[in-house]
Write a structure and sequence with these properties.
There is one protein chain. 36% of the residues are buried. The chain is 4% helix and 38% strand. The N terminus is likely disordered. The protein contains 3 helices and 36 strands. By secondary structure, it is mainly beta. It starts with a strand and ends with a strand.
Length: 509
């Protein structure tokens, strides 16, 4: 699988010009040769330190070339960095998701493409070196469309990707744009049938009068090919933009949520869905809130939560009624009158909600904080973490440049002990729930050089600024970490920064 890109000037780790790649011959993304760049720092979020494994980039175009070219180009390309000038709006990563085993990592972008990375097996010669992620499959999931009835353009941007548990040799995943959800099958093929009776070797039908013998078709080995095929298309069920999809624990159904409704689908039925939540008022002028995120409980197939733009979370039980407009539990924190401002309603809107792996807790992300709720306590969260409280004084300028409407995601680690979420200036934050320690790290091009040290970053609000601190006035709000993912069982994280995907891992001692 090769990527067709403009000619690039590549440099070695010593920064000497190497050569220029011809047009259309940039190979798959691989990790740098030799040991990973040791970007070590004490996170305070578990033992060890985080190091950058490598940095990946989303392609501008995708083309299929032969395996021989793939092998040759792999020797040439050693994961050197593409200049930012080559990035387009379509290259911006819009979602990142590990599968249930962590063997695969999928990214979706604004151009409607899905890129899947596969983790290589650990080397027998280097037992302590963990497997690295290389490109496994790339395909166009969604295309731009136009709704002629409403004169509305439908973007191809991938809003969410969700994996299904692997049941056989193939992998299945759901991807969605604003209107349509698709179920994709990703499978491998390393054999091809030969010896057809009614077809020649090129696949054309033969003249039956020329067939004088009967042959038994046989399977011949071939170069490994990874195929992505759409198995189901779930369309025409949402009037508003889809913001969430979630696979149920029964693995027979999933739900899709837009601003005002949540629909329940069966994987085998594409022409109808069940509306399980509808908050659309009879008069749209009476609309006071919208649905911002929704997720199924990881173990109970009848339970799900959804969050709103008012900063509230509703837990619903599908056993209570067919239409879950009446919630079972309602989670809301009373607002502190001293913090009341013009922007209070905007920054209280929840952009992401996630069940813990245990199913006991719910994590929510609003503009300034991450909160952890206990399912048995509805009146207030049990934990609140300030992500970037230093931005309170900047809310007016953030409103003017529309950054205040950014939707940050949040993720748990495999043991539910550490929380990760993004911020501006390519910063991302980790909070250890046990030690109550936190750290700010940066995923930047400057820090991705070999042997560069990934030091904890600090933001200075006012007064004297230390040498290793950055002023809040110097933050770049165009660089933002909106999408992150954590390996389900290991300390490996994926961080999306515009068109770059950074993969970090806990240092192996």
């Amino acid at each position: 699988m090769l990527l067709s890109l403009p000619a690039l000037h590549l440099q070695t780790s010593e920064h000497h010009p190497l050569f220029e790649l011809p047009h259309g011959r940039l190979g798959p993304w691989c990790s740098p040769t030799g040991s990973p760049a040791p970007l070590s720092c004490d996170t305070g979020c578990g033992e060890g330190s985080w190091i950058l494994v490598y940095r990946l980039l989303v392609p501008t175009q995708v083309s299929l070339l032969s395996m021989e070219e793939d092998i040759d180009t792999r020797k040439i390309n050693n994961s050197f960095l593409r200049d930012h000038s080559y990035a387009t709006e379509a290259d911006i990563i819009s979602t990142v998701e590990f599968n249930h085993t962590g063997e695969l990592l999928a990214t979706g972008d604004k151009g409607g493409r899905v890129v899947i990375f596969q983790r290589e097996q650990e080397s027998k010669n280097q037992v302590h070196r963990r497997g690295e992620y290389n490109v496994y499959s790339t395909f166009q999931s969604h295309e731009p469309e136009f709704d002629y009835l409403k004169s509305l353009e439908i973007e191809e941007k991938i809003n969410k990707i969700r994996w299904l548990p692997q049941q056989n040799a193939a992998y299945f995943l759901l991807s969605t744009n604003d209107k349509t959800v698709k179920l994709w099958k990703v499978s491998e093929r390393d054999k091809r049938p030969e010896g057809y009776n009614l077809k020649d070797e090129e696949g054309r039908l033969r003249d039956p009068s020329t067939i004088t013998t009967l042959r038994v078709p046989v399977l011949r080995p071939m170069d490994l090919m990874v195929e992505a095929t759409p198995r189901r298309v779930f369309a025409n069920a949402h009037t508003y933009h889809i913001n969430s999809i979630s696979v149920n624990s029964d693995y027979e159904t999933y739900m899709s949520a837009d601003d005002l409704r949540i629909n329940l689908w069966n994987f085998e039925i594409t022409n109808q869905s069940f509306n399980i939540v509808d908050i659309k008022p009879a008069n749209m002028e009476e609309l006071t809130e919208v649905i911002t995120a929704a997720e199924f409980h990881p173990h109970h197939c009848n339970t799900f939560v959804y969050s709103s733009s008012k900063g509230t979370i509703r837990l619903c039980d599908m056993r209570a009624s067919a239409l879950c407009d009446r919630h079972t539990k309602f989670f809301e924190e009373p607002e502190d009158p001293s913090n009341r401002s013009f922007f209070s309603e905007i920054i209280s809107s929840i952009s992401d909600v996630k069940f813990s792996h245990s199913g006991r807790y719910i994590m929510t992300r609003d503009y300034l904080t991450v909160k952890v709720w206990d399912l048995n306590m509805e009146n207030r969260p049990i934990e609140t973490y300030q992500v970037h409280d230093y931005l309170r004084s900047k809310l007016c300028s953030l409103y003017e440049n529309d950054c205040i409407f950014d939707k940050f995601e949040c993720v748990w680690n495999g043991s539910d002990s550490v929380i990760m979420t993004g911020s501006y200036n390519n910063f991302f934050r980790m909070f250890d729930r046990n030690t109550k320690r936190d750290v700010t790290l940066e995923a930047s091009r400057e820090n991705s050089k070999p042997r560069a040290i990934l030091k904890p970053r600090k933001v200075c609000v006012g007064g004297k600024r230390r040498k290793d601190e950055i002023s809040v006035d110097s933050l770049d709000f165009s660089k933002k970490i909106l999408h992150t993912a954590w390996h389900p069982s290991e300390n490996i994280i994926a961080v999306a920064a515009t068109n770059n995907l950074y993969i970090f891992q806990d240092k192996v001692n």
